[in-house]
Design brief:
alpha/beta, four-stranded parallel beta sheet, two-stranded antiparallel sheet, 6 strands, 26% helix
């Protein structure tokens, strides 16, 4: 961890799957925040977004850029035990970032 960066020591939990929100998380990571991307079991949709770095590997160039310096954890937020793990993860965070696509129902309800 580079303690000279302005967000050093800040922990951000991110469930964003849109480009704009993922880019915002990338900027936070570049400024020193520890960004933890929570991905569903099928992985973040941005991982499949064209263009691909290499067609054989299926690695998205977009995700390669947006995922730099982020950590990742896979959680099925529909499963009660994994909702509990998500809640524990959130309790360690300074910030929570999410994005929602219009017309899609929310899969997780946060209770404070």
């Amino acid at each position: 961890m580079d303690t000279r960066l302005p967000l050093s020591g800040v922990r951000v939990i991110e469930t964003a799957s849109g480009v704009a929100a993922a880019y915002a998380g990338r900027l936070l990571a570049a400024m020193g925040a520890e960004v933890v991307l929570v991905e569903p079991p099928g992985l973040c949709p941005l991982r499949r977004h064209a263009p691909m770095l290499d067609e054989a590997s299926g690695i998205s160039a977009l995700f390669a850029v947006l995922g730099v310096d982020k950590k990742s954890v896979i959680l099925d937020l529909a499963a009660p035990e994994e909702q509990a793990a998500f809640s524990r993860l959130l309790s360690t965070a300074d910030s929570f970032r999410r994005s929602e696509q219009r017309g899609k129902p929310r899969g997780v309800q946060l209770i404070s």
